[in-house]
Design a protein that fits this description.
about 140 residues; alpha+beta; 2 domains; 4 helices; DUF6088; S-adenosylhomocysteine hydrolase
Amino acid sequence: MKLEDRMNRSIKQRTSVVVLRSDFAKMGSDSQVGRVLARFVAEGTLVRVSKGAFAKTRINKFTGKPTPAGTLEMIAAELFRKLKISVEPSSLVSEYNSGRSTQIPMGATVSTGRRRISRKVTVGNSTLTYEKNSRRA
C-alpha cells in the first residue's frame, strides 16, 4: 500500500479536524510526508492552518469548493490542545460571557497567560491574535 493511501485512510478515520505533520512521522521520511501533505492541500483534502498543522475540509454547499471543516476558534482550540499549549479566552470574551459587557467580541483572540506564542494560525482570511497577560503574581 502506498504512503499516500495509508495517510489518506489515517486522516479519514480520525474524529478530530486538526492533523499534525508529526502524526505521520512513523509512516515515512520527512520529505515523503511533506510531499503527500502538499498533494492533499493541492487536491483540497486538507488546508494548511499553521506550520506543520492542517485541517480537514468539507465541500461548501453554496460554492462547491472545499472549506475548512470548522471555525477558526474551534480549529485553534483543537490545535493548542494537541500541542499541549494552555490558552484561555481573551479578556473581552470573558467579560461578555460573565455579563459585565454587552459588546460581542469580533475576531478571534486568545489569552496566553504569561507565555509568549509566535505561532501564526490562519483559517481562510481570519488570523488568530494573542493577548498576553503580563501581570505579576
